[in-house]
Design a protein that fits this description.
This protein is α/β, with parallel strands linked by helices. The chain contains 13 helices and ten strands. The longest helix is centred in the C-terminal third of the chain and has 20 residues. The chain binds iron/sulfur cluster.
Length: about 350
């Protein structure tokens, strides 16, 4: 599916969260309040032309700020603009990210005029103490209520969660994962906390009051969270920040950024999943064949076959090979988790 994203950094945000620097995250600069509508019109118009030229309809997405906290008359105008384009099939749906405390009945009523495909809530954590540290300005109850309101409209809901919040440990992070699963979201994004300049978190880091997670620890936590979400049937649609020029040039102060963070996490996920199977079958000193869908080969092996070497060493295997099996057509659009291991 094609997504046509419109980034509106900080637009609608009631305050600045302690870690947020959208200019580095999105490479876009805030749009002046009076110019937001004009800017949205221009970008929708440009995407419309692209769709017509390439004959590739897709979804319009509003990211980078707090979409539903824009003034209601702005939202009404955006709905008026998008409604006919959605009816014509130029845009197949609309998705946006927003804060849980900005999901009001009034704005939902206005947005009901559009085919909303997903609402992504910037939740970050489901621990009240950590929400307070992040200065998010809402509680876990607000998140639960927002999720329920969105689900009551039949719209899909996505949760954006953070890993490595100040004062968070493994226990509190995995509690957030469990509480998130209990909310039955359709999708989740996992973001390791990165320290950006010109933020309160950046100041804490420079004063040695905060230390971000190491890359290894962030991957370990995300891989386990991935396992928990996928076993609960929740799609994990992104792990790690989208790489860009600024991030790749390390325009941040510290933190577990890696351009292939998602891939490395999935590599570790495979390590855990296969290892669990080897443990179950008591693979010690055995001859083992792992069968997987071919498209997961690179994730399963890991860079320089690191996973293969790990399993052989850990279980003193005499032989370890990889084979492929065909995925059932009905499951083709989803990841397949079956790992067959023969002794
Ligand atoms: S609400 Fe989101 S976009 Fe706005 S300041 Fe906080 S993290 Fe940044």
């Amino acid at each position: 599916m094609v997504i046509y994203p419109i980034f509106l950094p900080f637009s609608g945000c009631p305050s600045r969260c302690i870690y947020c620097n959208q200019s580095i995250n999105t490479l876009e600069h805030p749009v002046e309040h009076e110019k937001i509508l004009e800017e949205v019109k221009i970008r929708i118009g440009a995407f419309k032309e692209i769709v017509l030229k390439n004959k590739r309809p897709g979804e319009i997405a509003f990211y980078g700020g707090t979409f539903t906290a824009l003034p209601l008359n702005f939202i009404e105008k955006i709905v008026e603009l998008l409604h006919p384009l959605c009816l014509k099939g130029i845009f197949t749906g609309v998705r946006f990210s927003t804060r849980p405390d900005a999901v009001t009945n009034g704005v939902l009523e206005v947005l009901r005029g559009l085919p909303i495909s997903m609402v992504e809530l910037g939740v970050q954590t489901l621990n009240n103490r950590l929400l307070e540290i992040l200065n998010r300005g809402y509680t876990t109850k607000t998140v639960e209520e927002a999720v329920k309101k969105i689900q009551a409209l039949g719209w899909k809901v996505g949760l954006q969660l953070m890993v490595g919040i100040p004062d968070e440990d493994r226990k509190t992070f995995f509690e957030t994962v469990e509480l998130s699963i209990a909310l039955s979201p359709n999708a989740v994004r996992l973001y390791p906390l990165i320290v950006f300049p010109n933020t309160i978190l950046g100041k804490w880091y420079e004063e040695a009051r905060f230390q971000p997670l190491s890359l290894k620890e962030a991957i370990l936590r995300c891989a386990k969270a991935l396992m928990m979400f996928e076993e609960a049937g929740v799609d994990v649609i992104r792990i790690g920040l989208q790489s860009n020029r600024a991030l790749d040039n390390r325009s941040f102060l510290a933190g577990p950024y890696h351009p292939a963070f998602g891939y490395l996490t999935r590599v570790h996920w495979w390590r855990l999943v296969v290892n669990r199977e080897l443990e179950k079958m008591e693979a010690q000193e055995g001859r083992v064949k792992i069968e997987i869908p071919e498209r997961f080969l690179s994730e399963c092996l890991g860079p320089k076959q690191i996973n293969m070497r790990f399993w052989v060493r850990k279980w003193a295997l005499r032989e370890l090979s990889i084979g492929f099996f065909n995925e059932p057509a009905t499951m083709f659009s989803k990841r397949v988790y079956i790992v067959r291991v023969n002794k």
